[in-house]
Design brief:
Structural class: alpha+beta
Shape: globular
Strand content: 15-25%
Number of helices: 17
Radius of gyration: 25 Å
Distance between the termini: 19 Å
Helix content: 40-55%
């Protein structure tokens, strides 16, 4: 546990980033490593995290006489740059030997990415800088865009933009999608995005937006040849409502416009696969657009893959409820952005420790390790983690650390996180946890 955290956020690298970003030019009352650790692992007992509370914890652990005004003064543009650089370092940090695995059926994908975004409410005094959307009163907010890597159990990219920014602008497709599967939310539904993923040799699954014009080019579902021929050329969403079937599989085409180049813009027709099935509970058709081959994945498997998007909803729930990313009530912009980046870094550490914990447990305990409950237990015992880190600054013996500190923290995580819960079909069929 201790060595993995040191490798994840090494002491020398933190000091180097503090110097590069201008946060600390020399070590005096404020030490960048302890400053980071206190902000990360101070348990909040109020509805909103307060700087005064963190300041008191810093004084208690370091016996420092730094005044509150000086402490608050350090939360300026340089601190925002410092914590943003730490977040970038977390994103680039690899988890070699700690990643989860895909089951044999899905092993053809390098990894699975889930893209989505969530809104974070800020103090209304920041409404001029971060105006909210669709509100009748003065409000402020930012949009956090996540591209979540399922196998690494952490976001691949995190974007922080004003709430009014369109979701599609938070996702940039490139060669990195090659061989990977992207599960796309309806907020990112554009034909150009699907074509970009396909042309970069990636794979995608997306719900079909109402009103989409998808012309049927070929039918893959078993049915009478006469009916199959009659459906060719018709609109997919228009015909499925009249079909007496539980599922439908077809190749469809759509028109989309390329980007303008030298004043000209081409219109092309592209073909992808579209599947639909009747939801067992609501009785409504759920349709999905994908470029996965019908010989490899049937309709039910496509639907189960898309249901796997619930992983990112759990991520948002964890970020807001466990990592204090829900609402930030601080009025100063620099302090607000600092707390926002801290919450994101905290979730990275939480996810990394989860992977380490899995490697240290026996198979039975690992199979019962409930990710949602683990997140709650991690936050509950976060103060003990901070105490362990501070104790190392006091040069305790390793035996003391194992008996009273790190060993006790590991024991709490491993004994309180496992839970006897019904196995979730989608999670267990796709991932080896």
């Amino acid at each position: 546990m201790r060595f993995e955290l040191e490798r994840f956020l090494p002491y020398n690298r933190i000091c180097e980033l503090a110097l590069i970003t201008g946060f600390c030019q020399r070590l005096r009352k404020i030490h960048p490593v302890i400053f980071l650790q206190v902000f990360l692992f101070t348990s909040c007992v109020h509805r909103h995290a307060t700087i005064a509370e963190i300041h008191r914890v810093y004084q208690a652990h370091t016996k420092s006489d730094v005044t509150y005004s000086s402490f608050v003064g350090r939360l300026n543009k340089s601190s925002v740059r410092f914590f943003e650089a730490i977040l970038d370092e977390c994103i680039r940090s690899t988890a070699s030997g700690l990643a989860l695995e895909l089951r044999e059926k899905y092993a053809r994908f390098i990894t699975i990415f889930i893209q989505d975004s969530t809104i974070i409410r800020l103090n209304k005094k920041l409404a001029d800088r971060f105006p909210a959307t669709r509100t009748t009163r003065v409000a402020a907010g930012v949009k956090i865009g996540y591209l979540f890597n399922v196998l690494a159990n952490s976001p691949r990219t995190v974007s922080v933009v004003p709430e009014r920014t369109a979701e599609i602008k938070t996702l940039r497709v490139g060669p990195w999608v090659k061989g990977s599967l992207l599960l796309i939310d309806l907020g990112f539904y554009t034909y150009r995005l699907f074509v970009r993923i396909h042309e970069n040799r990636g794979f995608f699954v997306s719900r079909v937006k109402k009103g989409s014009k998808l012309r049927i080019e070929a039918v893959h579902s078993p049915m009478k040849e006469s009916l199959s021929k009659a459906l060719i050329g018709q609109d997919f969403l228009s015909v499925i409502a009249g079909l007496e079937m539980q599922s439908f599989d077809a190749t469809v085409s759509f028109q989309f416009k390329r980007r303008q180049y030298r004043g000209k813009q081409r219109t092309e027709r592209y073909r992808f696969r579209c599947v639909g099935r009747i939801h067992p509970e609501t009785g409504e058709w759920h349709c999905y657009l994908t470029n996965l081959n019908h010989d490899e994945f049937n309709v039910n498997e496509i639907a189960d893959l898309y249901r796997f998007r619930w992983e990112i909803e759990s991520l948002f729930d964890e970020a807001k409820n466990e990592c204090s990313l829900g609402d930030i009530a601080v009025t100063r912009e620099e302090a607000t952005m600092t707390l926002l980046y801290i919450a994101l870094i905290r979730q990275f550490v939480l996810k990394r420790v989860y992977l380490v914990l899995r490697t240290l447990l026996d198979e039975d305990a690992r199979n019962r390790l409930a990710p949602k409950r683990y997140g709650k237990v991690f936050i509950e015992h976060m103060e003990l983690l901070l105490q362990n880190l501070i104790d190392e600054w006091k040069m305790l013996k390793i035996e003391d650390l194992e008996d009273k500190g790190w060993g006790h923290w590991f024991w709490l995580l491993s004994t309180q996180s496992p839970q006897a819960y019904p196995r979730k079909l989608v999670r267990d069929t796709i991932l080896k946890r």
